[in-house]
Structure formats: structure tokens, C-alpha cells
Design goal:
Elements lengths: L12 E4 L8 E5 L4 E5 L2 E5 L6 E6 L9 E7 L2 E6 L1 E5 L2 E4 L1 H18 L4 E4 L3 H27 L3 H24 L3 E2 L12
Parallel strand pairs: 5-10
Antiparallel strand pairs: 1-2, 2-3, 3-4, 5-6, 6-7, 8-9, 10-11
Length: about 190
């Protein structure tokens, strides 16, 4: 049996390998709470005791379409990732299983009636600082294009414009998905689920 296959019980289960070496991180939605096995640590967090759930988009070199759910409770900071390491150079997407597990987790947290905060993206100070740097970089690229056009360097202007378009598409999408906000557990943000 692989170390990321679910046990033979009927409770919803999700597992992923956070690194190539080592055991899988495993999670079960038990009637009493979220059970987790991460590295050598295990535990059960009652749904009503979960303080905060944060959804975000976090691409990596090996996986450019990767989502995270961070669960924080007294004594536990858990991360659930939408992809799993498959080989040294490849991460496997687990979109359907991740989406189903995270959706059911939210349903159970809401049913428990706790005071959980549901937030998206990065913390506001980090997000806005990063967005400011991104905007400054875009302005720098625009100035380079303008300068190239002024000296009639069409190839240079085209090269910088192509790089600007790629940069805007990649990093702009990252900032669009990770905008800090709050959401309801019955209305998960579509941009932050695969």
C-alpha cells in the first residue's frame, strides 16, 4: 500500500507528499474533528476550535498551478496542498480530491458553529507591499519600452514588451488570486480552488 493511499475507513481522507523524501501528510474529516498525521506528529482538532482557515494560490517551480489551505487552531498549524511530489522533477495535481476535501472541511467547520475566520491570500501588509513592488516593476518595463521606441529600436521594444506581457500574465494572476479578503464557508472563492 502506498503511503498516500487512504485507510479503509469511510471518513473523507486527503493526503499529499510535501517533499520527495519522507512520509505523506494525511488528513481525515472525523465526526469529532480534523485528524492529521504530519511527519511524526498526529492529532485531532475539533472543528469548533479552528481559529482561522486561509486559502491561497502558491505556485512552485515544479507546479505552477498549486493551491494551499492553511488551518490554524490552538496547538496546530496545518497546511493542505493541492499537489503532491511524484518524482524528483514532477508534482502531481490532485485537484478534484483537494477541492472535495476542502469544501467538506468548510461545511463541517460551519456546522460546528465556532468563531473561525475565513480569509484569502496573504496578510494585507505583505500583499500591498508586494503589489507596490510589482507596480514599480511594471512602470520600469513601460519606461524601457518607451525609451526603445524613442530611439527607434523596434526589436528591443518588442522584446521588452513580450517580457512585460509574460510578467503581467504570471505575476498579475498571482496577485489577482491572492488578494486579502474574507469569505463565508458556504461560498468558497472560485479563484482559490483548482
Amino acid at each position: 500500500m502506498s503511503d498516500i493511499e487512504p485507510a479503509a475507513d469511510t471518513d473523507p481522507h486527503y493526503a499529499f507528499k510535501p517533499s520527495l523524501m519522507g512520509a505523506a501528510s494525511q488528513f481525515w474529516l472525523r465526526p469529532e474533528g480534523l485528524e492529521w498525521h504530519v511527519r511524526s506528529a498526529t492529532g485531532v482538532v475539533p472543528y469548533a476550535q479552528i481559529d482561522r482557515v486561509r486559502l491561497s494560490f502558491r505556485p512552485m517551480t515544479a507546479q505552477s498551478y498549486r493551491f494551499l489551505t492553511e488551518v490554524r487552531a490552538p496547538g496546530a498549524r496545518l497546511t493542505i496542498v493541492s499537489s503532491s511530489w511524484k518524482s524528483m522533477f514532477e508534482q502531481e495535481r490532485q485537484n478534484d480530491a483537494y477541492r472535495a476535501f476542502v469544501t467538506e472541511l468548510h461545511r463541517r467547520i460551519a456546522a460546528a458553529g465556532g468563531t473561525t475566520q475565513f480569509v484569502t491570500g496573504y496578510a494585507a501588509p505583505l500583499y500591498w507591499a508586494g503589489l507596490g513592488i510589482f507596480a514599480g516593476t511594471l512602470l520600469g518595463f513601460a519606461m524601457l519600452i518607451l525609451r526603445a521606441l524613442m530611439i527607434l529600436d523596434w526589436v528591443g521594444a518588442g522584446f521588452v514588451a513580450a517580457f512585460l506581457a509574460l510578467f503581467l500574465w504570471q505575476i498579475g494572476g498571482y496577485f489577482r488570486r491572492n488578494r486579502p479578503s474574507v469569505y463565508r464557508p458556504d461560498a468558497l472563492p472560485r479563484l482559490l480552488l483548482p
